[in-house]
């Protein structure tokens, strides 16, 4: 058996990085006022990065007094300091760094072929910095869109936009969006936006690129020709058959001159004769978003819960053939006060409960498919095969959520006074306390990760609760 002594190795290598005087590489990173020189050892850089192995063996570098001189103006000092820490010690604490610096680190590790760190950072941004990504979608997309290996983060951004495109299209940054990104979005069938709205914002984006006056009454033929040249590749992506005749007349027809003649002929034939176009043959955009009155979860996450109730996978895409549920809010702690939640659930049929705990972004929940009845409490288990408990990492999570379905139907719900209890207390709610216990009657899953070691039950203080009747 091989003995491992990694802890001291990492510490000793960090001393080499920070204090050694036998370095043979000087790397200058950043530019202008944000420039810094780092000292390093070529043997360590070559061993840890195939990029440096290749760079030090070719003509990319210069030598001065037996010292290798290397410049990377496209990498900031903060980012390169993180890279050297990883290279020398195999350790890196991302929690202390700004999200923008971590994004820069992702780009740098892609260039420097640090595969292990690259994969970790991409996953970390999606799992732990999703809120920041949602607020900076244009910036993130412009940074990673053309980097082939950033496909996972790129797809995450595009899917997030498709699920809830309104904030993205109405943002100030939208008008500066790269044309390839906009093309990729409009081409997607899962972009959940009304077609006339997609058309409106395409026109606004195009006018911004031409730098023309927004008042088309003052336009001449050249203005229209300039707009046509910019939007030529985008026009076939618009699903004109999903635009109402009134919207076509008011909002599309004024820009008739920018639509290629063959497409325009087909579109007008559709509106006049009902003939389906062949050239603009993209299918209608699929998917829909449930509209639910919730301050804890977003509508796209209710799509996931809807699929869970239907025993489908965790896709956020709902189609017209799916069985859709109505989630009616019947109680919110922050609105209705500290009432006995169990009483609010009486005679409501199927019930969904969401629990936001304090000092955390996590959202716990449970679905009782048979509901509770207003009568004497039975202090007994209720039978159902369809109940489940679940966890979302935060209110943007559509990738890492976890569901545990009941596996002992005769112990699915425990009916007792003043308490909401799933199984044998796997998830139990009472006033301001949430309790989690070892999984016995529900599938093994997220519960075990949230139990304090050595304790049978772990309690969390509740920040807010929402209860929905489900029909």
UniProtKB/TrEMBL annotation:
Domain TLDc positions: 295-471
A Pfam family matched in the record: BACK
Highest taxon in the source lineage: Eukaryota
Location of the BTB domain: 23-96
InterPro entries membership: BACK, BTB-POZ/Galectin-3-binding, BTB/POZ_dom, SKP1/BTB/POZ_sf, TLDc_dom
PANTHER family noted in UniProt: BTB DOMAIN-CONTAINING PROTEIN-RELATED, HL07962P-RELATED
The name this protein goes by in its record: BTB domain-containing protein
Organism the protein comes from: Rhizophagus clarus
């Amino acid at each position: 058996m091989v003995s491992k002594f990694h802890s001291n190795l990492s510490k000793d290598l960090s001393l080499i990085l920070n204090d050694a005087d036998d370095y043979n590489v000087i790397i200058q990173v950043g530019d202008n006022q944000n420039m810094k020189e780092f000292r390093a050892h070529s043997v360590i850089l070559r061993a840890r990065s195939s990029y440096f192995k290749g760079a030090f063996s070719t003509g990319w570098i210069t030598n001065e007094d037996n010292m290798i001189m290397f410049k990377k103006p496209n990498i900031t000092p903060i980012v390169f300091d993180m890279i050297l820490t990883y290279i020398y010690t195999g350790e890196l604490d991302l929690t202390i760094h700004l999200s923008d610096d971590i994004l820069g680190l992702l780009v740098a590790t892609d260039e420097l072929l640090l595969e292990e760190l690259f994969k970790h950072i991409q996953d970390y941004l999606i799992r732990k910095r999703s809120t920041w990504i949602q607020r900076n979608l244009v910036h993130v997309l412009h940074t990673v869109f053309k980097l082939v290996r950033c496909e996972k983060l790129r797809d995450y951004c595009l899917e997030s936009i498709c699920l809830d495109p309104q904030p993205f299209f109405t943002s100030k940054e939208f008008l500066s969006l790269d044309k390839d990104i906009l093309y990729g979005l409009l081409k997607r069938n899962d972009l959940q936006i009304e077609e006339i709205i997609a058309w409106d914002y395409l026109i606004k984006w195009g006018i911004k690129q031409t730098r023309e006056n927004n008042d088309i009454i003052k336009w001449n033929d050249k203005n229209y020709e300039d707009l046509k040249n910019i939007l030529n590749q985008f026009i076939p992506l618009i699903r004109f058959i999903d635009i109402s005749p009134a919207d076509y007349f008011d909002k599309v027809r004024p820009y008739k001159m920018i639509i290629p003649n063959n497409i325009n002929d087909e579109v007008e034939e559709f509106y006049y004769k009902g003939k389906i176009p062949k050239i603009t043959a993209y299918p209608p955009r699929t998917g829909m978003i449930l509209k639910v009155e919730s301050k804890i979860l977003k509508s796209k996450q209710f799509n996931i819960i809807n699929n869970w109730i239907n025993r489908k996978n965790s896709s956020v895409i709902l189609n017209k053939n799916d069985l859709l549920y109505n989630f009616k809010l019947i109680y919110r702690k922050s609105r209705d006060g500290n009432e006995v939640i169990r009483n609010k659930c009486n005679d409501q049929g199927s019930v969904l409960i969401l629990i936001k705990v304090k000092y955390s972004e996590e959202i716990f929940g449970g679905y009782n498919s048979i509901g509770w009845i207003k009568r004497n409490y039975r202090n007994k288990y209720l039978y159902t095969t369809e109940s489940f408990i679940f966890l979302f990492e935060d209110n943007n999570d559509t990738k890492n959520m976890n569901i545990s379905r009941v596996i002992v139907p005769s112990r699915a719900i425990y009916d007792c006074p003043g308490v909401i209890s799933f199984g044998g207390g796997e998830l139990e709610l009472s006033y301001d306390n949430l309790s989690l216990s070892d999984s016995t009657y529900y599938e093994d899953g997220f519960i075990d990760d949230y139990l304090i070691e050595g304790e049978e039950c772990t309690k969390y203080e509740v920040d807010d609760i929402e209860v929905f009747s489900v029909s």
